[in-house]
Design a protein that fits this description.
The protein is an alpha/beta fold and about 350 residues long. It has one domain: Rossmann fold. The protein is about 35% helix and about 20% strand. The chain has 13 helices and 13 strands. The longest helix is centred in the last third of the chain and has 16 residues, at about 300-315. This is Type 1 glutamine amidotransferase. It comes from Fulvimarina endophytica. One of its GO terms (molecular function) is transferase activity.
């Protein structure tokens, strides 16, 4: 597998290895606290696009991952969506796939023999109500803009569905909103992130003492970066919850939640999302990014998104990776998808 800085292997540093010094302190476009800011640049190779064109979802594996990175046991898996139809359609238009479709394609690439079904947890359908959750080996909850600190029909339906998952003892994993849904369903609390939303990449994620030896983070170094887009965070963990990783402004970056008969593992970031999808996401939310002071104007955001898209099109653009402070944690698929692959391996090991 070739990354932007040469050949990479799935695990490049053992967990006990001290983290390398971070280039973020002097990298343009990254604040000392790890927040990404968006600035225009006069470099001639950067193309500023007025909007992100309609894209086709792609998995940027470049070449097939090593066979040892794939799960060959034929699992029966459920992918759970929490986007509204309008939100799903907008994401298809700009990123090429809805969030649950991205998740399904990612899981399928890592476990090609798995049988995968998709359902929405927002209610309003007999498919979700009559679904035999106990028939599945595991569930994967995709991200969405759902705000679990609010009390409305969508958040109640999502929490109720997760309660069913816990009650039947189904092992589950989720990203971003998926983790927040699990936390609320188990008795935790979600609130708006301060000082601002996280847009682009979370820098400096650190495993807790409990997380260093946990299967979910196996292969992660002591400190890593990951794609991220979220305006909310878990403010209070539920009973039975264990924090596995955190970052400066996000107290729960990875967690295990045991509730009822079930167990949920999740991350606040997005191991399933490639960098061109991050580009699409920041363009969709450009107004909010300007309002929150993360960018001076939409031209800055378009320039930043253009660089991300160019790097996705050509991972050998060392210049772009350097300017954005990105490394293989985010643009090399085998490393970016670590937690999803570990979850699949955990499910396979549980099979009789």
């Amino acid at each position: 597998m070739e990354g932007a800085f040469g050949a990479w292997v799935p695990i490049v540093r053992a967990p006990e290895t001290a983290p390398e010094s971070s280039p973020r302190e002097h990298m343009p476009g990254v604040m000392p606290d790890g927040r990404t800011t968006f600035r225009t640049t006069s470099r001639p190779e950067t193309k500023v696009r007025s909007e992100l064109p309609t894209r086709t979802r792609r998995l940027s594996f470049q070449a097939a991952d090593p066979p040892t990175q794939r799960i060959v046991l034929p699992l029966k898996l459920l992918v759970v969506a929490s986007e509204t139809p309008d939100e799903a359609d907008e994401r298809r238009r700009t990123a090429g796939a809805s969030s649950d479709e991205t998740y399904r394609q990612t899981v399928s690439a890592l476990a090609p023999d798995a049988a995968i079904e998709t359902v929405s947890c927002l209610g309003g359908g007999a498919a979700a109500d009559g679904l035999d959750l106990a028939a599945f080996d595991g569930a994967f909850f995709a991200g969405s803009p759902i705000a679990m600190h609010q009390d409305n029909a969508a958040t109640r339906a999502a929490a109720d569905f997760m309660t069913r998952v816990f009650s039947v003892g189904l092992s589950a994993f989720g990203s971003c909103a998926g983790l927040q849904i699990a936390a609320v369903a188990a008795g935790g609390r979600v609130e708006t992130r301060s000082p601002s939303m996280k847009a682009g990449f979370t820098r400096g994620i650190v495993a807790t003492t409990e997380g260093r030896d946990h299967f979910l983070l196996a292969g992660r170094p002591l400190v890593w970066d990951a794609p991220a887009m979220h305006a909310d965070v878990i403010a209070q963990m539920p009973p039975g919850g264990t924090v596995l990783a955190r970052s400066k402004h996000t107290p729960v970056e990875a967690a295990e939640i045991r509730h009822g008969a079930g167990v949920f593992h999740g991350v606040q970031y997005h191991p399933e999302i490639a960098i061109d999808e991050i580009a699409a996401a920041i363009l969709r939310q450009s107004t909010s990014l300007v309002e929150e002071g993360l960018a001076r104007g939409e031209d800055d955001i378009r320039a930043y998104a253009a660089m991300l898209t160019d790097l996705a099109d050509d991972p050998q653009r060392h210049d772009i990776a350097w300017r954005l402070g990105l490394d293989a944690d985010v643009f090399e698929p085998a490393r970016r998808m670590t937690e999803i692959r570990n979850s699949l391996a955990h499910l396979a090991a549980r099979r009789p």
